[in-house]
Amino acid sequence: MGHRIFLAGASGAIGQRLIPQLLAAGHHVTGTTRNADKAVMLRALGVEPAVVDVFDAEALSRAMLAARADVVIHQLTDLPPGLDPSRMGEAIVRNARVRDEGTRNLVAAATASGVRRMVAQSIAWAYAPGPEPHSEADPLDSAASGNRGISVGGVIALETSVLHAPFAGIVLRYGQLYGPGTGADAPAGASPLHVDAAAYAALLALDKGAPGIFNVAEPNQAVSTQKAVEELGWRADFRLPA
């Protein structure tokens, strides 16, 4: 039987690759966007759109109650197209706010709505320096400064909110994304990840995996992805049909 999914960030790079997977699996999806024009696109994809800002806690709670969701998927970010370097400085601050305040609002709305599970996007390159590959139990780089410190602080806030919520919380620490909508056509970074495979991990986490953290990336030397492969049944080579 399908779930009623509240997909926060439905019009983003991962959200758009996740929607067809959710619908094919028989789930009903309400997807959020801040942009009314993108709501038209979401409806065309088969999603019930909810135009709402994650920082408007009351409106967010009303939207989630109306969706009657039993699972929330948190794929919200606030980053410039193609990760434009000239705009990344201010975007890092905005994105950290999404991860902190935005996630707290999502968790509060989910709690009020009786949601039983949340799957949230995090990142796999926030670990503190130490032996590699990093496992999910390794500490995050809480001593980082500058822009990295802002990013890691946002990640820690997000993960703390999700993992300490009064429902099952799953955190997916994604590697560096490439593929449609990401601004990168080829693998790059220490722990690359195709956007389709990232979305696939979120689909699997709806029903598989105990609450906790999962590294999600292609085989690499920086982070271990053994847990996601073994507990979620995840595959790094998953791709949507062309």
Give me a quick take on this structure.
The chain is α/β, with parallel strands linked by helices and 242 residues long. It has seven helices and nine strands.
Please describe what this structure looks like.
The chain is α/β, with parallel strands linked by helices and 242 residues long. It has seven helices and nine strands, in the order βαβαβαβαβαβββαβα. The chain has helices at 13-24, 36-44, 57-67, 88-113, 146-163, 195-205, 226-232; strands at residues 4-8, 28-33, 48-51, 71-74, 117-123, 168-174, 176-178, 192-194, 212-216. Strands 3-2-1-4-5-6-9 form a seven-stranded parallel β-sheet, sandwiched between helices. The protein has a two-stranded parallel ribbon with strand order 7-8. Strand 1, helix 1 and strand 2 (28-33) form a beta-alpha-beta unit. Helix 1 (13-24) packs across helix 6, helix 3 crosses helix 4 and helix 4 (88-113) runs parallel beside helix 5 (146-163). The chain is globular.
